């Protein structure tokens, strides 16, 4: 069977997702079983993978799904505990004191706080923390999920203290011992170059977040209202990305996102309080009152305006649970601290499932879900809650988590079957590798334009930048070497695309929806986040093409032209936005109709 045919067959599970989940807007609980069945049929009858391997991969997927559900439960429990204690009301008032403008709030919480949480824990944790916090502040659940997904791009390559680089890229490249005798140095170089690409492309991500929010959830359905805060959005972007790039190229891949997010918060929050680059008070933007919201925007989690039993709670006390989450995540992820070794030593393992090489394992004490549960218990004490309120939080959290299980129990096993499809009697590589082979065969010298999309496809399937990098880093390096260009830039494009793929990853979207009770709307979310993903992968690919081919093909090459077009469009939209009156435009359209 030729490369093109194998690539097309490998696409079928993804096409099923596109048709049923995104196109027909079926809930993930109905669409993902179809994709799972397609993957199984391909594995068994085309790739001729033994049934035991398919079953073992499915069992491994169920274990992973269980860990995700545990994280979801912990995140919801923390939100409900804060709501019942009255802490959420105090936090909400604190953000109003910084700025009542929802555009400013979403930048601070999703972009800056989310980057710090991503750098600390990774693996979708920012959505589990930032998304319910936004809902608690009065954002529509769907708006919160979209914001949480879009920011899972720039910081992701250095999430979980650099895991996508140190585990993903390094272990992927290390499969070929002939490349170098120092894979850590090579990985550090790739990380520095990925950070440069991220910083350039990610500059517009905060602006994307606010523009999508005002367009889809504002009264006037206007991109323009979001773009009006472009000065503050760019300021917040640079406050994070400049230290991020410096750290990646000076200290290595462990701390760029964590330090970038912290420095950004330290700069932006005080500046916002002083009104720096803030919109005038008369132009503050907010959602309409909730009674006028589209019912599809809201989840099953109802945010109640509960005050602390004393009538007032200090801001520090209210924020203590989130401070503890950040502190515990950092302390448990730093390998030189003894806590990390102790927590990871408790490992539940199912080795060689059904006699295969597939092993399922998880570390219950190390999971972010455990941190959320522990912090919820601490909150019960420090916020002086009564037992009845905490029981209410527990009950509500369980009821919210259950609907997500149906989707995840098919989504993650499908992923595992897809990834473990190599080694069958047919002699083909795994489906992801055959798919990448097909793309590489068609693109030739244009490969840099597509390498970030391959990385994104890997993350879309696997739900992880780390796994995408493990699958494709060596493949990307080999393609770059065969082309005769600097292969480290090609691997950097893989890492950047793999990070951007988190915006559209099905099981990340399912998890983010679950923490705010929005299960069943996954397709609607991906229909909106696909646009920032396409921007991210396209711009990164164009920059990468320009970098690797300029010496041979000159500065005016295809990549430079595409990058210049994207930049020009962005500058034009921002520059002309001040002349637009969205309300007048809307009224004019109505009159013409």
Weakly predicted, low-confidence segments: 581-593
Helix content: over 70%
Task: Please work out how many helical segments DSSP would assign.
Answer: 25
What do the pLDDT scores average to? 88
Quote the distance from N terminus to C terminus: 55 Å
Please give the radius of gyration in angstroms.
23 Å
- Report the biggest beta sheet as strand number plus sense, adding barrel if it closes: 2 strands, antiparallel
What is the general shape?
globular
Polypeptide structure, described:
- The protein has 593 residues and is an all-alpha fold.
- 72% of the residues lie in helices and 1% in strands.
- The chain contains 25 helices and 2 strands.
- The model is unreliable at 581-593 (pLDDT under 50).
Short description:
The protein has 593 residues and is mainly α. The chain has helices at residues 3-23, 28-45, 51-85, 87-98, 102-120, 125-136, 141-150, 159-173, 183-201, 205-217, 223-227, 230-250, 256-273, 315-333, 338-344, 368-382, 387-419, 431-443, 447-462, 465-483, 487-500, 506-514, 522-553, 558-577, 582-592, and strands at residues 348-350, 360-362. The chain is globular.
